[in-house]
Amino acid sequence: MTHRLIYLDNAATTPCDPRVVEAMLPFFTEKFGNPGSRNHRFGWEAEDAVEVAREQAAALIGATPKEIVFTSGSTEGNNLAIKGAASMYERRPAGQTGRGHIISSIHEHKAVLDPCKRLAKEGFDLSLLEPGADGLITPEMVRGALREDTILVTLMWANNEIGTINDIPGIARVVKEQRKRTGGDIVLHTDATQWVGKMPTNAEQDGFDLLTWSGHKIYGPKGVGALYIRRRNPRVRLVAQNEGGGQERGYRSGTLNVTGIVGFGKACELCGQEMDGDGARLLRLRRRMETELTGAIDVSQVNGHAERRLPNIANISFGFVEGEGLMMAIKEIACSSGSACTSASLEPSYVLKALGVGDELAHSSLRLSMGRFTKEEEVDYAIGKITHAVKKLREMSPLYDMHLEGIDLSQVQWAEH
Fold it and tell me: Which one of 113, 156, 239, 273 has the minimum C-beta count within 10 Å?
């Protein structure tokens, strides 16, 4: 155990399930046709495989196959949903100069925040909601931010760093009420990258209008994902963001990644079959990780809501520890000190700062995310290794010594250099 790398970064990416790889293999060499080639068997075979995957993806989220558009992943899906909806539904009410109002939150993934900020530069009004200390955006927050010219609400279902779960069905009801009250076009998009495949999803019951998810978070291949676009009550339309061959009903031109789509569909099917068992096991492992680490290490905290969190993500901060030193001390454990897409930055996590976590604790936080192939003995090893590393690092911390002596560090006057 001590000589192998232990993978606890499943929120960044998951390994491909061997059953997914097996399903993909024939489409590299034997069934290599272009689904756009409708004059021969090779094309028909590829087209049939894509439609099977579309059915598998739709089944996972309680949608119809015609509501599924394949993409290269959640970043592209988010861009298509957000920019496409803004362009389709933009409006200028009398006496207003803006192109429409968009609601999001300050702790979204960059794949949502950056498109929203781009639209703000292009004349749309943008409101970014701030979560409470529990990391949640509530339906009441959304209701309070709505305006007559609101055209789009885009909020993640589950946060990628702390695992907190927003009440998307409740927010969908608020959006529906606004649509009925004003008679105007307003749609709800949710980035469900961390949610889908881990928790039950039903498009009709949950009420979202647009939803994105990605293959590599659900034990499928990288470079493929899907966007759900509601077809009725209301029928949602988008302005395409790239044009060419008119594939995917004109929403996403380009030759389809058949091999990836086949793998994505198989991954969706497996998640539908195994989600309940995986979730129960991962919740036990996550609770064990959190309970034992916070029990063994004082001045530590679990970030996010106590209960409304995904079963597989634990985000824990350790006081009196320098974050980079902690990562170096546990280098045989693959985990994250922030979201994988922003971990190259030395700035403290903007998600944790949004919750009111101080810079020092934010720097010393670990995101430990487990998955289908995580073993109990790996979790036990990680608990022991992290506990040992934190205590070792604290032996070199004068601030921790002062804490043990009962000195109120907030009252210490530091000399200026």
Answer: 273
Residue-wise pLDDT for 11-65, tens only, equals 999 999 999 999 999 999 999 999 999 899 999 999 999 999 999 999 999 999 9
Domain boundary assignment for the chain? 6-12+276-404, 18-271
3 state SS of 78: helix
Q: What interhelical angle do 74-89 and 110-121 show, nearest 10?
A: 30
Are 109 and 82 in contact by the 8 Å Cβ rule? The answer is no
Structurally, at CATH architecture level, domain 6-12+276-404 sits in Alpha-Beta Complex (3.90)
Contact between residue 242 and residue 196 where contact means Cβ atoms under 8 Å apart: no
Taking phi over 0 as left and psi of -120 to 50 as alpha, with beta for the rest, 301 belongs to beta
Contact 223, 262 (CB under 8 A): no
Q: Which residues are catalytic?
A: 341
Measure the N-to-C terminal CA separation of the chain; round to a whole number of Å.
Answer: 46
Q: Rounded CA gap, 140 and 355, in Å?
A: 18
Question: The pTM is what?
Answer: 0.93
Q: Which of 187, 275, 307, 297 lies closest to 239 in space, CA to CA?
A: 187
Structure tokens at 198: 């881990």
Q: CB-based contacts of 323: which residues, under 8 Å, 6+ apart? A: 337, 363, 364, 365
